[in-house]
Amino acid sequence: MANLIELTTKNNIAILTMNTAENRHNPAFLAEFNLHLDHIEADQNIKSVILTSSSDKNWSLGIDLQWMSNPSILPAAISDFMIQISDLFKRIVTFPIPIIAALNGHTYGNGSVLACACDFRFMKSDKGFFCFPEVDVMVPFVPSMFPIINKAISQTFFNRLAMSGERVGAQQLLENKVVEAVFTNNDELQAGVLEFAQQFNKNRWIYAQNKTQMNKQILLTMKEEDPSFIYNISKLLWKNLQKK
């Protein structure tokens, strides 16, 4: 069985390739992601990370609602899972080297939040939309997701996306400074992101310090607001999912 996420290295760059058709987030996905981050953090030769997908259609479609709506999944399991998501985002926004998202397909929901948590984003223009469909699928944003998103997306543009569930393409993301650059196809995207990633050879301590300070509001919200919100909302979310 193939790994949910594959780790390879090239020129002191770690490449994390999400390996399923939709790259949805569930406990197994989070566990593999963290395991790979452990390996990367332990290897001092690695200078940056690229997060991409092997799918020719999707980068990540977010939370695995099929897993979450399984009758065997109780509110406590949903709550634990949502805490694990916050923990992964915390790790990403304080990680001691850059994490660069190469958005080579559709990026929806929690996948979009994951992209925003990364330090930089690039996209290809020939296929792939970006959106926050939470308003349509009845899954609320966790409090810390708002500052995570706002570090990558202006409040005005995010308000439009969050309230409408509208799908937008690479050019709109570029015009709104969500992505650094847009490439014509996947080959050009992967080559361009690899070239960008090669410029980083920074001291890990100072990089982690700067990221921690820049993302202080995210960390504070995670600590003060996420736990109680997640505990309460997981029960309602469980009821809503069982009705479907």
Number of DSSP E strands: 11
The quaternary state of the protein chains shown equals single chain
Assign an overall shape. Answer: globular
Query: How large, in whole angstroms, is the Cα Rg?
Result: 17 Å
Helical residues, percent: 40-55%
Strand order across the largest sheet: 1-2-4-7-9-11
Largest sheet: 6 strands, mixed
pLDDT averaged over residues = 94
Compact overview of the structure:
The model has no long low-confidence stretch (mean pLDDT about 95). The chain is of the alpha/beta class and about 240 residues long.
Mind explaining what this structure looks like?
The structure is a single chain. The chain starts with a strand and ends with a helix. It is built from 12 helices and 11 strands. By secondary structure, it is of the alpha/beta class. The chain is globular, with a radius of gyration of 17 Å. Helix 1 runs parallel beside helix 3. The strands form 3 sheets. It has a 6-stranded mixed beta sheet with strand order 1-2-4-7-9-11, with helices on both faces. The mean pLDDT is 94. Strand 1 and strand 2 form a beta hairpin. Helices cover 50% and strands 18% of the residues. It comes from Pseudoalteromonas issachenkonii.
